[in-house]
Design a protein that fits this description.
- By secondary structure, this protein is mainly α.
- The chain is built from six helices and four strands, in the order H-H-E-E-H-E-H-E-H-H.
- Helix 4 packs across helix 5.
- It is an enzyme of class 3 (hydrolase).
- Keywords: Hydrolase.
Length: 196
């Protein structure tokens, strides 16, 4: 694998991470990792627009053959954790939920509570995407999953109006009256059987 193809890596994926600008602004805290690749270092000379710092791209290798190989290539795992600013995004998002300052604290706790099956013992939220045969589309799909999780956790329901509360109380009363009426009817029916 040549380093040349990763020249505009940070630009290419920065355009995908747009959740109200939050993910784009916090791009330095996300790391991305492709499966079925090897380790590559990006030097400053390979990036025209950088500020002189070298980029290091950590990639994981997965050996397999045949049909399994093609499935592994397109699979994408996402994690969230804090990473160094010198690292560019990887296909695994390492994202530690509690240390993400770009998300409100109550939302972070909601994410941990709601997504407890996806959070590992280190407090990292782990997602995977294998929807498409393209890894770029799988990255986009994984980012959409992250957006959806953050949106759902940050949703605040509207307050119920007094008119709505009164209407609900009325419906509950009517339902109770109907339930008692049916119960009495069935009770009378059984007692009539015993008398005969």
């Amino acid at each position: 694998m040549r380093v040349k193809c990763f020249r505009n890596f940070h630009r290419l994926y920065a355009s995908l991470l747009t959740f109200d600008g939050l993910l784009e602004r916090r791009l330095n805290t996300l790391r991305v990792l492709y499966l079925r690749t090897s380790s590559v270092n990006l030097r400053s000379s390979d990036n025209k627009d950088d500020d002189g710092q070298g980029y290091k791209l950590k990639l994981q290798r997965k050996d397999s053959i045949g049909q399994v190989d093609s499935q592994v290539r397109k699979k994408l795992w996402t994690r969230w954790t804090e990473c160094k600013q010198s690292e560019i995004p990887r296909w695994i998002y390492d994202f530690h939920v509690l240390s993400a300052e770009w998300i409100a604290e109550d939302v972070r706790h909601k994410i941990l509570q709601r997504e407890n099956n996806r959070v590992n013992k280190n407090g990292e939220l782990v997602l995977s995407s294998m929807k498409y045969s393209s890894q770029l589309k799988n990255l986009e799909d994984a980012v959409q999953k992250v957006e959806m999780i953050v949106e759902e956790a940050s949703y605040v329901p509207k307050e119920t109006t007094p008119e709505k509360k009164a209407h609900v109380r009325k419906l509950v009363k009517e339902a109770n009256v109907k339930r008692l009426r049916v119960k009495r009817y069935l009770s009378d029916k059984k007692s009539d059987r015993k008398q005969q």
